[in-house]
């Protein structure tokens, strides 16, 4: 619909705002009387409840004028418009029954002359709380009183020949006894803020490392944040659930003349269990010219500048099981050595040595040429779409979170040419979550319009954390961990633009959850290509720290979502581990279209590790191990198929592509188990795979094929991959 003229002048439909002022004598008398009355306690400010919530309407003039456009916070850019008839409605679901104090209607030129504001607890039975019979367009600010989960504008009579058209439909509540939650504040006891004058920095690092070196399933959580400056003669050894990061806007703002070290002395030189840690936003000048970072899954190396080489193997070159580098510059060579698999994205490196099974590069300056299957390098010149993880930094003395901009066809770092592109958000707009916070409090903060910064700790939630507002940031420090109680979903995102989830662990509770993380509701359909949701360094665990269960760990329903480094893991060791003890049938299920995964680690699920139903999905790097603990062949029988594929693309999908993908089996309970294939996909021209492999670890079980009926079987006990260069 085109505009029908200039909107009427701004008006407020609020009788209280239009009362005539009293005379000076009356004012004086009232003032004197009020002075005799004790002051009432301050009440909380109102909260905007409707933004980003699910909205529906009786009709829409077209797809560009959907109901959701009236609750997206875009005051003059998007709008809902109905069909051209009188009796039309628009309603919003607030998610729970709450007190309503105001409704603000920002009309486009096609406004309502007569309409009702209605409330409902169930979406079916409505009660009118305000009737307007002489609306005049512009902005109507309407005071109401009542409670409800659903709020509806019920149009009765139009003012123009067009439909009803609203830029925004805003519902406010929250007045009364519930105080507003503050934004900002201190970062809690487990965030160690360091500056060059801090005494005994090495001692502080060593004390935490002593606690965390072998605390694989412990409850300690720590973040070391270094203010911009130069630090000399440090060796920061990084243990479990420990994050080290600089507080500059660029890595070179914070220089450590020393090392940031991960080794495997605690595990006899075996680095395959060096999980859950990270280094970010620092420059490192290694003492001997090479920094050691011997990690495995769920360990990120982001926005780092290593002024020398990087060794990815433990001392003694023992086993290591893969990791992730992004937005980093390594001046010297990266020594891969014993690393089984690795993914490097949008970086610059001085070179790379060795390949074991699966080394993948996208958008990396200096990466080795694509040469799979020997050496086993899979190299893409660019990354199709990327947006770096948000991070905390200091602007002068003020903490802010920087949210980097989206890039397409990315190559190299975001900071090579100076200040990166993106948005800075002051910490005052974040609710700083500290141990002891409840889900109700966290959701209240979100309803107020605050972002979330989880400080290091373990958080039990008895209800789902609901992310309903576009562009919300949920950022964890020090591997903050969320545990859902009573079988709830830990975190759910609405079908809105630009949500950023980053830097936390979801640990399944003892009561089975149907899902642990949901991105978008079922049948989500909004286009988020301009501003996608990102899931970065978000890890999911079922078992290990204790018995936990979940049917499906991560479900992605929203289109255009980017999954950028995740480890979704059904535990194969630790406490609460067993075929039925930590039952988890499915790892990641993708229903949304145009979803991109960069760095997808998913392991040990009872059935499918990854299932993909959305169109035009892409995965760059996939690492998987099938469940070790299958008791026998019958336990994994899938109809007439032996075993469940690690990565399955549904037969309904017409377009899909994957690069650098591996699945391994280690059926140590019953080594006679046979798996038909690691990958299952429809045979269609638009479904393509590059650089696939399957591996039998020591001959404990075997794959018959790599993908569908293609690829040679794994054989013997020598752990030699079976490869497929391209499919079909």
UniProtKB/TrEMBL annotation:
Disulfide bond recorded as keyword: no
InterPro entries (alphabetical): BG_Antigen-Binding_Lectin (IPR051941), FA58C (IPR000421), Galactose-bd-like_sf (IPR008979), Pectin_lyas_fold (IPR012334), Pectin_lyase_fold/virulence (IPR011050), SACTE_4363 (IPR059186)
Superkingdom assignment: Bacteria
Amino acid composition bias (Polar residues), ranges on this chain: 711-728
Keywords: Signal
CDD domains named in the record: GH55_SacteLam55A-like
Signal peptide: 1-44
Residue ranges of every copy of the F5/8 type C domain listed in the record: 38-174
Pfam (any one): F5_F8_type_C_2
TM annotation in the entry: none
Disordered, as annotated region: 709-728
Protein name according to UniProt: Coagulation factor 5/8 type domain-containing protein
Organism this protein belongs to: Streptomyces cyaneogriseus subsp. noncyanogenus
Lineage: Bacteria, Bacillati, Actinomycetota, Actinomycetes, Kitasatosporales
């Amino acid at each position: 619909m085109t505009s029908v003229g200039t909107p009427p002048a701004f008006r407020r439909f609020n009788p209280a705002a239009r009362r005539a002022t009293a005379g000076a004598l009356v004012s004086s008398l009232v003032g004197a009387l009020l002075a005799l009355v004790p002051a009432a306690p301050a009440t909380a400010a109102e909260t905007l409840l409707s933004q980003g919530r699910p909205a529906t309407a009786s009709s829409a003039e077209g797809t560009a004028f959907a109901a959701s456009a009236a609750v997206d916070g875009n005051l003059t850019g998007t709008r809902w418009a109905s069909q051209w008839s009188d009796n039309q409605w628009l309603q919003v679901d607030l998610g729970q029954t709450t007190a309503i104090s105001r409704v603000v209607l920002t009309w486009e030129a096609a406004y309502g002359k007569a309409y009702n504001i209605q409330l409902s607890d169930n979406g079916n039975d409505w009660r009118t709380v305000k009737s307007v019979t002489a609306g005049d367009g512009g902005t109507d600010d309407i005071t109401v009183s009542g409670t409800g989960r659903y709020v509806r504008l019920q149009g009765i009579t139009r003012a123009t020949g067009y439909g009803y058209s609203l830029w925004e439909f805003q519902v406010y509540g929250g007045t009364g006894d519930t105080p507003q939650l503050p934004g900002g504040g201190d970062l809690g006891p487990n965030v160690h803020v360091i500056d060059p004058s801090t005494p005994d920095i090495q001692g502080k690092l060593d004390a935490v490392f002593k606690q965390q070196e072998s605390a694989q399933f412990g409850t300690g959580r720590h973040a070391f944040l270094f203010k911009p400056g130069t630090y000399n003669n440090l060796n920061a050894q990084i243990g479990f659930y420990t994050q080290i990061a600089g507080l500059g806007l660029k890595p070179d703002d914070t220089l450590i003349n020393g090392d940031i070290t991960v080794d495997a002395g605690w595990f006899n030189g075996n680095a395959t269990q060096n999980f859950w840690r990270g280094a970010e936003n620092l420059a490192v000048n290694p003492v001997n010219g090479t920094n050691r970072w011997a990690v495995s899954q769920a360990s990120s190396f982001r926005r780092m500048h290593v002024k020398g080489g990087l060794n990815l193997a433990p001392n003694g070159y023992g086993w290591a099981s893969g990791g992730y580098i992004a937005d980093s510059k390594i001046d010297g060579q990266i020594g891969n050595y014993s690393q089984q698999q690795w993914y490097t994205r949008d970086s610059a490196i001085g070179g790379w040595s060795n390949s074991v099974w699966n080394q993948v590069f996208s958008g990396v300056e200096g990466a080795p040429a694509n040469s799979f299957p020997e050496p086993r390098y899979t190299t893409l010149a660019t990354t199709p779409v990327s947006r770096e993880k948000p991070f905390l930094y200091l602007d002068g003395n003020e903490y802010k979170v920087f949210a980097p901009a989206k890039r397409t066809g990315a190559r190299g770092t975001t900071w090579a040419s100076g200040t990166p592109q993106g948005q800075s958000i002051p910490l005052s707009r974040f609710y700083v979550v500290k141990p002891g916070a409840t889900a109700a409090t966290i959701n209240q903060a979100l309803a107020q319009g605050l972002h979330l910064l989880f400080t290091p700790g373990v958080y039990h939630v008895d209800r789902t954390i609901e992310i309903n507002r576009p562009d919300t940031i949920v950022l964890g420090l020090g591997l903050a961990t969320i545990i859902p109680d009573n079988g709830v979903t830990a975190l759910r995102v609405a079908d809105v633009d630009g949500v950023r989830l980053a830097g936390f662990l979801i640990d399944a509770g003892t009561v089975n959850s149907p899902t642990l993380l949901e991105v978008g509701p079922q049948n989500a359909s909004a286009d988020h290509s301009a501003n996608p949701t990102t899931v970065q360094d978000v890890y999911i665990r079922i078992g290990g720290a204790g018995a936990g269960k979940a049917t499906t760990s991560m479900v992605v329903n929203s289109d255009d979502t980017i999954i950028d480094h995740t480890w979704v893991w059904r535990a194969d060791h630790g406490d609460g581990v067993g075929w039925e003890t930590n039952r988890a049938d499915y790892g990641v299920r993708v229903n949304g279209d145009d979803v991109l995964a960069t760095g997808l680690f998913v392991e040990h699920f009872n059935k499918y590790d990854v299932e993909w139903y959305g169109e035009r999905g892409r995965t760059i790097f996939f690492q998987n191990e099938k469940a070790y603990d299958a008791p026998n062949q019958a336990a994994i029988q899938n109809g007439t198929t032996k075993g469940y594929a690690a990565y399955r693309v549904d037969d309904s999908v017409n377009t899909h592509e994957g690069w650098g993908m591996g699945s391994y089996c280690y059926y140590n309970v019953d080594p006679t188990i046979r798996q038909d294939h690691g990958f299952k996909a429809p045979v269609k021209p638009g479904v393509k795979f590059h650089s696939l492999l399957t591996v039998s670890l020591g001959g404990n079980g075997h794959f018959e094929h790599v993908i569908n009926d293609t690829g040679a079987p794994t054989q013997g006990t020598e752990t030699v991959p079976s490869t497929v260069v391209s499919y079909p």
